[in-house]
């Protein structure tokens, strides 16, 4: 590849990463607004602040590669290629949602783009991701599966069970722990003894710690590991340092008792993945500030339009209530 | 007049009172200490009892359930806080293979005095993994007792009894009722297990209802009474042990019964209660016992769908009218 | 005449035939490969299909159940071998929160075609943690199908159907029946789900019996026939979906029913079936439906105690006699 | 302590260890015989070969210290102080058994001696042991709990969950993994990735590997760790290399397909914990060969008498069947 072509190529990649991070942030800002204005049923968990993790990783994957997601799953969903319209429809329980409104925020899945779904059971998708990797190995598809989960989820025994099997069977799966310092209202130190990377290494799994606010660093590492997975060198474990800007869920507004305002301000002002990457793009003269603002604005408009569409969209027919309990089986 | 407090407050009081009385009681679960649980039911307890007795755990349901079993076998009286009833699946082995069977398997030598407090209830837009009402699963396992408080009053009295019981007890609180108020005496009281409560007396039809379905039954009974149909409401309060006698006595009087529970209908709580009524009050029944459980579908997220999956007052009233009028519900 | 083979052999054949037909089928569990399971049911499969498809797992039930769910969602058709039904508690989360709900929660987009084969049955002196019959637990969860073969014939036909089904199916084999022989055709056949089998026709009383309880019912029916009582035996074969129609048709004819299942009686399978009969054949019943489940006690080890915890032929015959003679079983 | 007194003291300890190991072997030989002659209901798992583990550890404990045991639990039960008579009665389902015949081999418990019970769920007692340690810490009893389990049980996620909590809360529990090389019919290497000690260490738990056939080595280490537990320095993990002489259970007779005869012979002839310890006692002039034979004979006679007693003992009354489902609660 010529240098110019390579630069062009990289520029496209950079742009996509920037765009995808901004799209996640825009999606979450709107989702939060929907909740605060009582237009969204139930509650939901904001991904804002963690964008570089989902985007850095998913941009290293193909659409056929799989991911499993969590209760904090909008970011993964957007990053893996989902559209705003179907996502907002799902969050509002509308028929045009990815799951016809039956799943909602905590179960949003986008099978067409390889997103096997959010999961409301902490750690609940660890087996699923590992099984997806077993399929890839057995069928020789060359697909990689990334299993996203939080620091809190490392307390679930299931993880150790599936790591053991993934290691024994050399499955193409990457366990990606988004360590945002908290599980609900508890600091990670209080619920995690020892070292997370050592836990994976004890099973013979090569492990890495990376700055989850640095989209390029995440993307580079994820790209390398995905390639190694395809060569049969998996599984891998990745601990990504990151931070959630909002409360544990949208309703968790008063959080002084467990988390200092200063800490929040620090992360937001010094380590924001979008701001910092934007600055870098400008510094490197890849983009101008105006170009970035134009992108931001376009995405904001897209999100707004999608929200409006979703608010007006129709609910599933009540007759759908007992559809999809069982899949049809060809006779 | 007795003061009114919320169900949430009632649970909190029950636990605090018992913990003051008995230093061997501890409580453990996720975010139970400073956070006082996501539902804020336990707020204030850690301030009074400290982190030695109100213990925040990692997100390890099987693990802390197992720890509670071992603690219970050796001299503590643990209360396990399971944030959502849907997580019961995760603790089933420790609860059903270990806690429930230890006393029996040891020939009566080892006891497992523990309380598993958890919740149930749909229509909160929490979708399929945070909305289940799984009381039937644990009720099926010998060695466990199962309580289903229907108001703040029951929540307090049953919790205190549960804590003093020498067996594993599972308590299901309806998460939609935490803010519902009811009169609760200042003085101490306990509600014995296996004693149903006749919530309302009536002549024409018996409504056996658990947990929040008692409210549903009451709303239906109000409607019915305006139409001249007198419904008796029985709240079993514990489904294990089940106060069969009170239920049967009522049905022998009214000759008609509707059983209402928020768990899935098939192979659920309504089946057991209906089967017992049909068997043991057979010659008194003027009509088939009607069962009203939740639909046999995972709980859908969409508000347009979720509400129709659970029994409601209009449906209960409708069924009551039909059997009282002698209409055949099924071409039986 | 058709050859006779053991239930164990029938299961083995079903799996082997399906694995030959469909390369996406894999099987995983503990000691399933070289050992062919402790019950030796799967002997020979690994020789034919290799360790890529017959996969020995560590002792990680939740883990390999979860792996099976993920594999099923992405293009394989896994058969999970759960060595004892008592270990179901360990896989409940992956089975009930994940496998059972995925199709629904995804609005029909994701499928989970997997089979969980496990066992049930007491009287093997295996004590409380290796003797349970937990079919009621999974039957309560929408999204799962539940099969209970009563002979080698059913075991083969139902297994093949289960493997081809696009949903999670749980199959309970009675571990005491692995060596029981029955005629099984050489030619391929499948047994559709939701189709009860009228094992024996009769006039006076309907015996609805699951799994090995069909044998118990047959022994009882033999005794009864010598006394001039003609019993009809219905084997539901799958309890989800349940062939209500065939059961009701029989009861409408005989006017009397006994439901027999080896799970604990309370909140168990007999409750659901009895409740449906009582509700939907109400006006045809001459006597209350009798339920015969296992006693509500953990399964005791001692041979002196274990055998009396499960329904037996004498008990069934006794009850049948009583309702046929019009004796009131309960002072109902 | 004077040298003479110390020697005397040690001699008593040595004798107890020898005796207890021989008692376990004698118990198992008889249990096996009962099975082979079809006098024992169900089946059972022999502890023969692993005696130094149970005895080395339990001799370092007080009667108030607790243990949890496994499906292969007779050895732990004897080592923690149980009597032959009540044990055989339990194995035969008799009323005078430790559990009135309701538990049997896989659930035998001896609460009076701190044995919280065998467990037929692999790994099932890991939470129980940890909870027992929580009781000790909370009530300040100074008791230690030892959690026995096999190499196969390390695949259960529960272990990682409770190790995490034990480490966070500094509980006085010792996880003792009897690595006998097999779980059922599968070699440990095939089902365990990485390193077992590393798995515990990843949680910040100090871990040790020790020759499980050397009763003195086991006893010394267990004594040190128990003392440290009492000082609040727990938890600990111990991997003990050992071997089971019989099949996985009494009925597992033809095992050539998964385990070589040579391997069995090698362990039995070169590494038998009783033979080797007996030789050492003689070498050290602590005991004579004749004295040891006398002990062996006495124990053999005891065991035989207990078997006879148990065979003649009565079954529980059928009315017991629904007793003990629920414990009474004082009003
Ligand atoms: C099995 C289970 N236990 C508890 C919960 C409740 N819960 C939801 S999110 C959460 C915290 C998860 O923390 P972490 O894994 O760090 O993810 P984060 O929320 O920080 O993204 C808890 C305890 C749950 N959903 N599932
Ligand atoms: C949860 C569970 N899974 C499977 C089994 C069946 N099983 C009984 S013993 C055993 C092997 C245990 O191996 P290990 O822990 O190494 O103990 P060992 O038998 O070698 O002493 C298995 C798989 C069980 N009893 N419990
Ligand atoms: Mg977190
Ligand atoms: Mg082993």
From TrEMBL, chains A, D:
<feature type="domain" description="Dehydrogenase E1 component">
    <location>
        <begin position="20"/>
        <end position="318"/>
    </location>
</feature>
<dbReference type="GO" id="GO:0004739">
    <property type="term" value="F:pyruvate dehydrogenase (acetyl-transferring) activity"/>
</dbReference>
<dbReference type="GO" id="GO:0006086">
    <property type="term" value="P:pyruvate decarboxylation to acetyl-CoA"/>
</dbReference>
<keyword id="KW-0786">Thiamine pyrophosphate</keyword>
<dbReference type="InterPro" id="IPR050642">
    <property type="entry name" value="PDH_E1_Alpha_Subunit"/>
</dbReference>
<comment type="function">
    <text>The pyruvate dehydrogenase complex catalyzes the overall conversion of pyruvate to acetyl-CoA and CO(2). It contains multiple copies of three enzymatic components: pyruvate dehydrogenase (E1), dihydrolipoamide acetyltransferase (E2) and lipoamide dehydrogenase (E3).</text>
</comment>
<dbReference type="InterPro" id="IPR001017">
    <property type="entry name" value="DH_E1"/>
</dbReference>
<protein>
    <submittedName>
        <fullName>Acetoin dehydrogenase E1 component alpha-subunit</fullName>
    </submittedName>
</protein>
<dbReference type="Pfam" id="PF00676">
    <property type="entry name" value="E1_dh"/>
</dbReference>
<dbReference type="InterPro" id="IPR029061">
    <property type="entry name" value="THDP-binding"/>
</dbReference>
<keyword id="KW-0560">Oxidoreductase</keyword>
From TrEMBL, chains B, C:
<dbReference type="GO" id="GO:0016491">
    <property type="term" value="F:oxidoreductase activity"/>
</dbReference>
<dbReference type="Pfam" id="PF02780">
    <property type="entry name" value="Transketolase_C"/>
</dbReference>
<keyword id="KW-0670">Pyruvate</keyword>
<dbReference type="Pfam" id="PF02779">
    <property type="entry name" value="Transket_pyr"/>
</dbReference>
<dbReference type="InterPro" id="IPR029061">
    <property type="entry name" value="THDP-binding"/>
</dbReference>
<keyword id="KW-0786">Thiamine pyrophosphate</keyword>
<protein>
    <submittedName>
        <fullName>Pyruvate dehydrogenase, beta subunit (Lipoamide). (PdhB-2)</fullName>
    </submittedName>
</protein>
<dbReference type="InterPro" id="IPR033248">
    <property type="entry name" value="Transketolase_C"/>
</dbReference>
<dbReference type="InterPro" id="IPR005475">
    <property type="entry name" value="Transketolase-like_Pyr-bd"/>
</dbReference>
<dbReference type="InterPro" id="IPR009014">
    <property type="entry name" value="Transketo_C/PFOR_II"/>
</dbReference>
<keyword id="KW-0560">Oxidoreductase</keyword>
<feature type="domain" description="Transketolase-like pyrimidine-binding">
    <location>
        <begin position="5"/>
        <end position="180"/>
    </location>
</feature>
């Amino acid at each position: 590849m010529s240098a110019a072509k390579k630069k062009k190529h990289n520029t496209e990649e950079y742009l996509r990463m920037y765009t995808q991070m901004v799209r996640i942030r825009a999606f979450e800002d709107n989702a939060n607004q929907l909740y605060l204005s009582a237009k969204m049923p139930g509650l939901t968990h904001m991904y804002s602040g963690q964008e570089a993790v989902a985007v850095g990783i998913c941009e290293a994957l193909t659409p056929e590669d799989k991911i499993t997601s969590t209760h904090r799953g909008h970011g993964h969903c957007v990053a893996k290629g989902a559209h705003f319209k179907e996502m907002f429809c799902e969050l509002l329980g509308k028929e045009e949602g990815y799951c016809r409104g039956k799943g909602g925020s905590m179960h949003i899945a986008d099978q067409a783009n390889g997103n096997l779904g959010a999961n409301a059971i902490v750690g609940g998708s660890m087996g699923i991701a590992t099984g997806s990797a077993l399929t890839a190995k057995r069928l020789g598809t060359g697909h990689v599966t990334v299993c996203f989960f939080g620091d809190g989820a490392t307390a679930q025994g299931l993880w150790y069970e599936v790591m053991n099997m993934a290691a024994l069977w050399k499955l193409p799966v990457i366990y990606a722990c988004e360590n945002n310092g908290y599980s609900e209202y508890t600091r990670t130190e209080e619920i995690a003894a020892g070292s997370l990377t050592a836990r994976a290494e004890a099973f013979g799994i090569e492990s890495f710690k990376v700055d989850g606010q640095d989209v390029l660093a995440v993307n580079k590492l994820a790209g390398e590991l995905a390639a190694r997975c395809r060569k049969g060198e998996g599984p891998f474990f990745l601990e990504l340092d990151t931070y959630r800007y909002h409360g544990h869920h949208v309703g968790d507004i008063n959080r002084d008792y467990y988390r200092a305002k200063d800490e929040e301000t620090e992360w937001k002002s010094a380590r924001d993945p979008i701001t910092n990457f934007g600055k870098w793009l400008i510094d490197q003269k890849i983009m101008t500030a105006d170009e970035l603002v134009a992108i931001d604005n376009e995405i904001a408009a897209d999100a707004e339009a999608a929200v409006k569409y979703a608010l007006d969209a129709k609910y599933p027919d009540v007759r759908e209530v007992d559809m999809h309990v069982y899949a049809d089986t060809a006779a | 007049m007795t003061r009114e407090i919320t169900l949430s407050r009632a649970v909190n009081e029950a636990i605090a009172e018992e913990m003051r009385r008995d230093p061997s009681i501890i409580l453990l679960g996720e975010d139970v200490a400073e956070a006082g649980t996501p539902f804020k039911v336990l707020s204030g307890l850690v301030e009074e009892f400290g982190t030695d007795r109100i213990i925040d755990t990692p997100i390890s349901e099987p693990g802390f359930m197992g720890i509670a079993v071992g603690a219970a076998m050796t001299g503590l009286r643990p209360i396990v806080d399971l944030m959502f009833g849907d997580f019961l699946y995760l603790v089933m082995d420790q609860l059903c293979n270990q806690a429930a069977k230890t006393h029996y398997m040891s020939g009566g030598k080892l006891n497992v005095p523990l309380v598993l407090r958890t919740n149930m209830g749909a229509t909160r837009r929490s979708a399929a993994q945070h909305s289940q009402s799984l009381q039937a699963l644990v009720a099926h396992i010998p060695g466990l007792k199962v309580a289903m408080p229907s108001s703040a009053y029951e929540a307090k009295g049953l919790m205190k009894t549960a804590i003093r019981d020498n067996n594993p007890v599972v308590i299901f609180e309806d998460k939609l009722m935490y803010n519902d108020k009811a009169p609760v005496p200042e003085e101490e009281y306990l509600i014995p297990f296996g004693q149903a409560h006749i919530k309302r007396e009536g002549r024409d039809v018996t409504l056996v209802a658990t947990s929040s379905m008692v409210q549903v039954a009451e709303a239906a009974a109000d409607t019915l009474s305006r139409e001249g149909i007198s419904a008796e409401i029985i709240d079993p309060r514990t489904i294990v042990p089940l106060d069969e006698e009170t239920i049967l006595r009522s049905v022998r009087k009214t000759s008609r019964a509707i059983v209402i529970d928020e768990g899935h209908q098939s192979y659920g709580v309504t089946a057991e209660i209906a089967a017992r009524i049909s068997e043991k009050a057979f010659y008194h029944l003027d009509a088939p016992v009607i069962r009203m459980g939740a639909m046999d579908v995972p709980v859908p997220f969409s508000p347009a769908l979720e509400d129709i999956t659970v029994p409601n007052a209009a449906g209960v009233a409708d069924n009551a009218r039909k059997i009282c009028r002698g209409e055949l519900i099924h071409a039986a």
